[in-house]
Design a protein that fits this description.
five-stranded mixed beta sheet; 9 helices; Pilus assembly protein; elongated; alpha+beta; PAP_PilO; single chain; nine-stranded antiparallel beta sheet
Length: about 425
């Protein structure tokens, strides 16, 4: 996202920072500076809300200067202090979208999931572009509130809070902005990128005078291209690593939630006297398959009007949409301790799960010896394991209680031949 500088009263604010999470509480500045150097950024700001810490990065060669304020940091801090009104009360808010008109006519957009700005969740652009992004992100679901200018109220967002951008900026009694130093972008290293660029241009000119300009220009272009490729790779890696979409467990319900939802909607066991062949249930839908037995098509349709009967009249299926609450952004735990904490209790119950490591990039099971992947491809920082488990008469909810651990997700529940089969994925460090 391109950086955008806007002026509110006498102060300049920046939108479009590249946000990354920080994990070392005792040395946030050092960790942020190290990250900034890796992605060739020379300016940063650090925010801390709801026990989370993030750094926002920018490059001074894009026109941003030290001391300009991060508008995203100001808005998120105010929301962290004040909360928002949803579900009938004023309360803390960790998942929110915001769209606000700026004094210069552009619109600012913010997307925060689990109290963290998404890497591309801070930008400014024309109203149409911001509205398209707002509608797209809103469709993902899981947001506590939508906050924005009062003109957006007609769009019928749930839990909409109408506020303008100035209401997030603290003011003194005389009406002037109460500035906090931490809002300001700080220099990562001693020399700004724009100064380095100017110095490089001066050196290039001197080399040209000395007759070496052509060689030096070629050499610089090669270095710039190599650096740009490295920066692009680092940015892509970080975006994948930090975005909600690349953390697949966040969009999947926790084990108990899925099992209870599937059980609650398991109601057509002997529909019209037909014999149940199988019932399967995921977070999105449930499906039944029956054989006619001694019943009739009419008797089936009397109880399940939407059932689809095959031409022979002896087999039927029924699929119905199901809505299950998405999971949370679990902090993953170490592979060995997680797997042992699952396998051992199951063994005490006489159960055994089939567990296989999979390649998260492809979603396919791979032999452990061949899991290295091709050089240059992105590899997540977590490991993924598929699992399949026959309950053998044990209630699925009892098994789900064992599986209720960080990063464990049941994705499909199947009932066939009086047996329950559970399938899912385990994510671990």
């Amino acid at each position: 996202m391109a950086l955008h500088i806007t002026q509110i009263e006498k102060h300049k604010f920046v939108c479009g920072l590249f946000w990354q999470s920080l994990s070392r509480p005792r040395e946030l500045a050092r960790e942020a500076a190290d990250l900034g150097r890796k992605i060739d950024s020379d300016l940063m700001v650090i925010r801390m809300d709801h026990s989370t810490a993030q750094a926002g990065f920018a490059q001074s060669k894009e026109g941003v200067r030290r001391g300009m304020f991060s508008l995203a940091a100001v808005v998120s801090k105010t929301l962290a202090l004040e909360g928002a009104f949803y579900d009938g009360e004023q309360q803390p808010v960790h998942n929110w979208l915001g769209a606000f008109e700026l004094p210069d006519g552009m619109w600012a957009y913010f997307a925060v999931r689990d109290a963290n700005f998404l890497p591309n969740g801070d930008f400014a652009g024309p109203r149409q572009e911001v509205m398209e992004r707002l509608q797209s992100d809103y469709a993902m679901g899981g947001w506590n509130v939508i906050i924005g200018d009062s003109t957006l109220a007609d769009l019928d967002f749930h839990n909409f809070n109408a506020r303008d951008i100035r209401s997030f900026i603290p003011h003194r009694k005389d009406g002037s902005i109460r500035v906090h130093a931490w809002w300001g972008l700080r220099q990562i290293d001693g020399t700004p990128a724009w100064a380095k660029a100017m110095a490089a241009a001066t050196v290039a000119g001197l080399v040209a005078v000395g007759g070496m300009y052509g060689y030096r220009y070629y050499q610089q272009k090669q270095e710039e291209q190599a650096r740009d490729r490295a920066i692009a790779a680092a940015r892509e890696n970080m975006l994948r690593e930090q975005s909600a979409a690349s953390r697949p467990w966040t969009g999947k319900p926790v084990p108990l939630a899925l099992v209870r939802s599937c059980h609650a909607h398991f109601g057509h066991i002997t529909a019209g006297g037909w014999l149940l062949d199988s019932y399967s249930c995921t977070a999105d839908q449930q499906s039944y398959a029956w054989s006619r037995g001694n019943s009739t098509v009419a008797m089936l349709h009397e109880q399940v009007p939407g059932a689809l009967v095959d031409p022979s009249g002896d087999k039927a299926t029924y699929v119905k949409a199901l809505k299950t609450q998405a999971g949370v952004n679990d902090a993953l735990v170490e592979q060995r301790s997680l797997l042992e904490s699952i396998v051992s209790p199951l063994q005490l119950m006489g159960l055994s799960a089939r567990i296989a490591e999979i390649d998260p990039r492809k979603g396919q099971a791979t032999p452990q010896a061949g899991a290295g992947g091709q050089a240059g491809q992105w590899r997540p920082s977590w490991k993924s394991f598929s699992f399949m488990l026959n309950a053998h008469g044990v209630e699925p909810e009892a098994i789900a209680s064992i599986l209720a651990r960080p990063g464990v997700r049941i994705e499909k529940l199947t009932y066939r031949g009086s047996e329950w089969l559970l399938e899912g994925t385990i994510y671990a460090k």
